[in-house]
Amino acid sequence: MAQLVKSRKACTVNPLKMSQPIGGALAFMGMRAAMPLLHGSQGCTSFGLVLFVRHFREAIPLQTTAMSEVATVLGGFENVEQAVLNIVAKTRPELIGICSTGVTEVKGDDLAGFVELIRQRHPELAGVAIVQCSTPDFSGAFEDGWTKAVTAMVEAMVTGADGAIRDPRRINVLPGCHVTPGDIDELRAIIESFGLIPTFLPDLSGSLDGHIPEEFTPTTLGGTGPEEVRAMGLASWTLAIGEQMRAPAQALEAKSGVPFRLFERLTGLAACDELYGFLSMISGQPVPPRYRRQRGQLVDAMLDSHFHIGGRKFAIGAEPDLLFALVSALGEVGAEVVSAVTTTTSPIIAKIPCEEVLLGDLEDLEAGAAQADILMTHSHGRQAAERLHLPHFRIGIPMFDTLGAAHLVTVGYRGTRDLLFAVGNMLMHRHHEPGPEDWRNAWPEEGACAPSSDPSPHAEKELVP
Amino acid sequence: MTSLNQTIQDVFNEPSCGKNQAKSEKERKKGCTKQLQPGGAAGGCAFDGAKIALQPITDVAHLVHGPIACEGNSWDNRGAKSSGSKLYRTGFTTDMTENDIVFGGEKHLFKAIREIVEKYAPPAVFVYETCVPAMIGDDIDAVCKRAAEKFATPCIPIHSPGFVGPKNLGNKLAGEAMLKHVIGTKEPEYTTPYDINVIGEYNLSGELWQIRPLLDELGIRILSCISGDARYEEVAWSHRAKAAMMVCSKAMINVARKMEERYGIPFFEGSFYGIEDMSDTLREIARLLVERGADGELMARTEAVITREEARAWAAIEPYKQRLSGKKVLLVTGGVKSWSVVAALQEAGMTIVGTSVKKSTREDKEKVKKLMGDDAHMFDNLAPREMYRKLKDAEADIMLSGGRSQFIALKASMPWMDINQERHVAFAGYHGMVAMVAEIDRTLANPVWQEVRRPAPWERAGDVAWQDRALDAPGHVASVRSANPPDTGRATVRGKEAA
């Protein structure tokens, strides 16, 4: 329903977008004892590291092949090889996930070939999984890098089923990069309550949920282990969350025949009904009473919050899948989206229930937010919110000026309920108190536009398959 | 690239740097920093360094010519404060895409400059060159020259592709760009015998404003700060100052030295951190100004202010001194501020059990040695496990470091305080030192440390915490806890590796 409009500016002002390699690196951080490695100059890694440290408030394992000018020109095989050897010697990882960057892609370094050559030359590394993906900074965005890294792990690590018996209780879950560690915890609890055993690829809830670790480790603190990934081919179903996870879900199906069900979002009443219904169907278990009660709570929350959210004007900047989830779920209680900006192309954009989605930056979001009541985007929206005197609901990565970014839960009945409350509260606290002068000269001036009489485009139809 | 290579060689050949002069011709060409180890490196690139050094110039549009990573992953993340324009906090980038790589990014860059000038009308546009345009051969100089003529706005090329070196080199490359294109291009309305430059101060958390009132009181004018809370024109007329102070170790020594050569502005290296350092700095500023023609009475007035401020600061620290006396501090910083902080902490009665000198120059190390009297306290690189051990074995009560290593302390439930550029508290001058001591006290006195160390109800007496297991791994035989054998395989293996 939304039309994608590309910003025609030559200069991006106040970027909403972040680059592919760090999206890929974050995916590798959801793996146990992993060390993500960016093949590029040391700054590529350093910027990503600082960003994640500030968002998660956690130690972040992330290394660099430290490409110098000369190495860049001559080719980076030695750097990649040396980096892998150093990482193995220093940190004993189970998995090294390598993402290329703009520099090494311009040179044309063949990372896949490098990894093969390293395998040949160093048989002693047989016990370490090495996964690589091509993630140039000059195309795509964070979300695309995440997709590529997860797809690469499926392709490199999952083994075929080979006629082995599938375990009907085991299911795979492929969360998009907008699914927080808190969301994963929530999903795990939901899935387990149906007697199912989920394997998350990747699982940031074990590694970046801000817990006190059991061990002193320079690699990731937790996450999914390589042997669990290998066994994903024996599961009965794959749940993909967000359109961005279609590619890895398809790769998993092609490799091992596990059928997948794609949930474009898990925020919103109907979207959640789909999930609980599906889990009930595949498990043969009824929906547990706890979730039946939570559904009632969500319905009540929608009734209570629609007074405050309905008709209010939202300016939202987020990556495609998150934008889709937010615009849809808030639209279902009557929110009006006056400005929607995203970072990269995706088939989901056409389904976002608003008129127009701009592929642009926060300057565009700000320009479209003149009439807005609230701004929703990551922490970089703070300057725009200040200038516009708008409340700023922080969501997405990075959230560097907020505690508990990892624990913001927006999935499931309960997550949706809490999101509606938080957004509704923010609007309620900014409620305009009437004053004696409010209606003195309240008619619009001659020639000024009257409020649009177009019906809200949001209440039209439910979008989740 | 040839000219960039020449600039880099020129920067490496720094006559005012003692360390550099001690090297042979061949060593000098290799540059100041050790070859980075792939898979074992940490720290920012030259572009990062250039941006850190210049972004505090507040009214300039800082345009990053490169793919989205360079600006998109890092913008608006530094704490430099402004008393005026906020334009420096706006992120501008050409966000290069495949088309630019194939066809060249020059036209794109030119258009981007035009958009900025039309929309924001800044006094200047700084164009930062990153790795990708450097590789594909975009002629940034030519674009800037053309754009400057066409749009009647200075466009300053900053050659700082990340792969030429680390942050420190980037600081210097940024300085070279200022020397080449900005400094000396404007004239101040008037000058006084009391005009100084402050070079290498970025006004993080507003620290420059902790100093400025004292200089105001003394009638000393900061003609130009390079670059904290600076306007473009201030930097452009900085060549008319009478004297200069160089802050922050050697980050911008090339700027200070070349301004001395070209414009006869004498400089000294000083620090705003620590009570005595601050006093020395004020004295030195006054001395240089008097040398350059200011009235000699300035010295007496300066001493009077120093005496008064020191007395106030000591009085304010006094209540804390008792509580902090004997507390042991582990100092892990990028190195630039190590020695200045050491003096400050000692003034508050604390003991430094160790300090990192990874990025410090030889002179810095000499200073630390003089202050702490023992070489053994300095370490180049402290492994996380070792940092942790020092905290755990109560060799230290608190760790002061940058944000990245905070979790080593926090996960071990040990007090930690931020002293790097991301911090939010200003620690400069007399007020700053009192604030720092108060901050350390606030951190140490927090009951949270006792709370978080409380064992969970399901932990039995005699259980060994993971922290202890990690320390008990082979390689830590000296540990008193070695009586308890490590009980997990992985901890053992890792311990071996670390040892």
Automatic annotation (TrEMBL), chain A:
<dbReference type="Pfam" id="PF00148">
    <property type="entry name" value="Oxidored_nitro"/>
</dbReference>
<dbReference type="InterPro" id="IPR050152">
    <property type="entry name" value="ChlB/BchB/BchZ"/>
</dbReference>
<comment type="function">
    <text>This protein may play a role in the biosynthesis of the prosthetic group of nitrogenase (FeMo cofactor).</text>
</comment>
<keyword id="KW-0535">Nitrogen fixation</keyword>
<feature type="domain" description="Nitrogenase/oxidoreductase component 1">
    <location>
        <begin position="19"/>
        <end position="427"/>
    </location>
</feature>
<protein>
    <recommendedName>
        <fullName>Nitrogenase iron-molybdenum cofactor biosynthesis protein NifN</fullName>
    </recommendedName>
</protein>
<feature type="region of interest" description="Disordered">
    <location>
        <begin position="438"/>
        <end position="465"/>
    </location>
</feature>
<dbReference type="InterPro" id="IPR005975">
    <property type="entry name" value="Nase_Mo-Fe_CF"/>
</dbReference>
<comment type="pathway">
    <text>Cofactor biosynthesis; Fe-Mo cofactor biosynthesis.</text>
</comment>
<dbReference type="InterPro" id="IPR000510">
    <property type="entry name" value="Nase/OxRdtase_comp1"/>
</dbReference>
<comment type="similarity">
    <text>Belongs to the NifD/NifK/NifE/NifN family.</text>
</comment>
<dbReference type="InterPro" id="IPR000318">
    <property type="entry name" value="Nase_comp1_CS"/>
</dbReference>
UniProtKB/TrEMBL annotation, chain B:
<dbReference type="InterPro" id="IPR049939">
    <property type="entry name" value="NifE-like"/>
</dbReference>
<feature type="domain" description="Nitrogenase/oxidoreductase component 1">
    <location>
        <begin position="45"/>
        <end position="444"/>
    </location>
</feature>
<comment type="similarity">
    <text>Belongs to the NifD/NifK/NifE/NifN family.</text>
</comment>
<dbReference type="InterPro" id="IPR000318">
    <property type="entry name" value="Nase_comp1_CS"/>
</dbReference>
<feature type="region of interest" description="Disordered">
    <location>
        <begin position="15"/>
        <end position="40"/>
    </location>
</feature>
<protein>
    <recommendedName>
        <fullName>Nitrogenase iron-molybdenum cofactor biosynthesis protein NifE</fullName>
    </recommendedName>
</protein>
<keyword id="KW-0535">Nitrogen fixation</keyword>
<dbReference type="InterPro" id="IPR005973">
    <property type="entry name" value="NifE"/>
</dbReference>
<feature type="region of interest" description="Disordered">
    <location>
        <begin position="477"/>
        <end position="499"/>
    </location>
</feature>
<comment type="function">
    <text>This protein may play a role in the biosynthesis of the prosthetic group of nitrogenase (FeMo cofactor).</text>
</comment>
<comment type="pathway">
    <text>Cofactor biosynthesis; Fe-Mo cofactor biosynthesis.</text>
</comment>
<dbReference type="Pfam" id="PF00148">
    <property type="entry name" value="Oxidored_nitro"/>
</dbReference>
<dbReference type="InterPro" id="IPR000510">
    <property type="entry name" value="Nase/OxRdtase_comp1"/>
</dbReference>
